[in-house]
Design goal:
Blueprint lengths: L4 E4 L2 E4 L5 H14 L2 E7 L5 E7 L7 E3 L11
Antiparallel strand pairs: 1-2, 1-5, 3-4
Length: 75
C-alpha cells in the first residue's frame, strides 16, 4: 500500500500510487481556483472512496507524498 497521504482537517486519506499525479493536480486546481473537484482516494481499510473537495470552503490541505526519509529514518 502507498504511504502517500491527503490530510484535510483531522481526516486522513491514502493516495494510491497510480492516482498521485491526478489527485495532486486536482487538489491544487481546486484550492487555487476556488472550485470543486472530485477524485478517488483510499480509506483506512484501503477501500476506494470518491472524495469531493470544495476549494472555496477548504482552508488548508496536507499532501504527504513520502518523497524523502523522515527525520531519524535511514535512506
Amino acid at each position: 500500500m502507498s504511504n502517500k497521504r491527503l490530510i484535510i482537517g483531522e481526516t486522513e486519506w491514502t493516495i494510491d500510487d497510480k492516482d498521485e499525479e491526478t489527485v495532486v493536480a486536482q487538489v491544487k486546481a481546486a484550492l487555487h481556483g476556488n472550485t470543486t473537484t472530485e477524485f478517488v482516494v483510499l480509506d483506512q481499510k484501503a477501500r476506494p472512496v470518491t472524495l469531493v473537495l470544495n476549494g472555496r470552503a477548504t482552508a488548508a490541505v496536507g499532501l504527504d507524498l513520502d518523497t524523502d526519509p523522515r527525520p531519524g529514518e535511514i535512506s
